[in-house]
Amino acid sequence: MEVIIRPDAEAAADLTARLVQKALQDKPRLVLGLATGRTMESVYRRLVEMHCSEKLDFSGVATFNLDEYVGLASENSDSYRHYMERNLFQHVNLRPSNVHLPDGIAVDLDAECVRYEQAIRDSGGIDLQLLGIGSDGHIGFNEPLSALQSRTRVKALTPATIEQNAWHFSVPEKMPRRALTMGVGTILECRRCILLATGEAKAEIIAAAVEGPITSMISASALQLHPHCTIIVDQPAGGCLRGADYYRWIFDNEPEWEPYRGARQG
Ligand code: GLP
After folding, report:
1. 265 pLDDT exceeds 90?
2. pLDDT of 135-154, one tens digit each?
3. Cα dihedral across residues 238, 260, 220, 169: positive or negative
4. How far apart are CA 97 and CA 76, in angstroms?
5. Number of CB atoms found within 10 A of residue 47's CB
6. I need a labelling partner for 191 at 20 to 30 A (CA). Which of 35, 92, 148, 174 fits?
7. What is the DSSP string of 139-194?
8. Rounded Cα–Cα distance for residues 95 and 99 (Å)
9. Is the CB of 35 under 6 A from ligand 1?
10. Cα separation, 75 vs 55, whole angstroms
11. 185 backbone dihedrals φ, ψ, rounded to 5°
12. pLDDT of res. 263
């Protein structure tokens, strides 16, 4: 695991987008795992900019989103599909047939989860998975006590998650109580993952996930098991990290990060 601390949220999102850009340039038929949430919006904004001004080409890319709410159709403006359309899909040249999200209104939800896992396998597996983190440490919607080997399934959301996300909904009381989500085990199979967290409110959970013990109480801590995982935070979200000086030293000195040191800072 590597941790990168950038001075502010824009610089953190910019670095994330530049790593996606590099992965896409290295492999035009990239299988890209996508996340939702407010934090990711600036990453998608940057990718759209790169598509428009630098001709970043998504025509060969396949995408798989982490999760979708149960009961929300793709046309529903509160669905994650709709979020993705608004923030990325309708602005870049992704082929609609290459875009995948779990179907929140599938008649048989368990069969839908099996289908989704198979679709990921059929694509050759996820090359790069983007992740955010919930304040309870969830990745996707893997709430506390999600098995570290869990697969795509229906998960009941915690009251804390419902409270945290309800304000996004046109009618907050109607926020679904369940979601389809890739499992922790599904996520750990991706070839590379990048978790982005910004803002002081994420500082404690980031420190617990990165520097604390691996526990199913904090799904993101399972990323410590991943062979190629990059955690990107802004200064406030990195505020509780005990190893911050070391992480900064790595970013400032390791040749791998040289091309990114001059990343624009908002
Ligand atoms: C939702 C998503 C998660 C995401 C989280 C963070 O719960 N299911 O995948 O990590 O939001 O949201 P935000 O970026 O708004 O803090």
Report:
1. no
2. 999 999 999 999 999 999 99
3. positive
4. 19
5. 24
6. 92
7. STT--TT--TT--SEEEEPPHHHHHHHGGGSSSGGG--SEEEE--HHHHHTSSEEE
8. 7
9. yes
10. 29
11. -65, -40
12. 57
Which amino acid type is present at position 17? Answer: A
Q: If you take atom 4 of ligand 1, which residue's CA is the nearest one? A: 132
What pLDDT is attached to residue 110?
Answer: 98
pTM of this prediction exceeds 0.90: yes
Average pLDDT, the chain: 96
pLDDT tens-digit profile of 45-63? 999 999 999 999 999 999 9
- Beta bridge mates, 179: 69, 155
Q: What residues are annotated to the active site?
A: 67, 136, 138, 143
Q: Is the CB of 220 under 6 A from ligand 1?
A: no
* Residue of 129, 133, 134, 141 whose CA lies nearest to 68: 141
Token pair, residue 4, equals 């990168």
Q: Which amino acid is at 211?
A: E
Name the residue with the closest Cα to ligand 1, atom 3. Answer: 140
CA of 30 to the centre of ligand 1 (A): 23
Sign of CA dihedral 261, 263, 264, 266: negative
Look-up: residue for tokens 């008649």?
A: 107
For 121, the 3-state DSSP assignment is helix
In the predicted structure, residue 264 carries a pLDDT above the cut 80: no
State if residue 168 touches ligand 1 by the CB under 6 angstroms criterion. no
Q: Which amino acid is at 104?
A: G
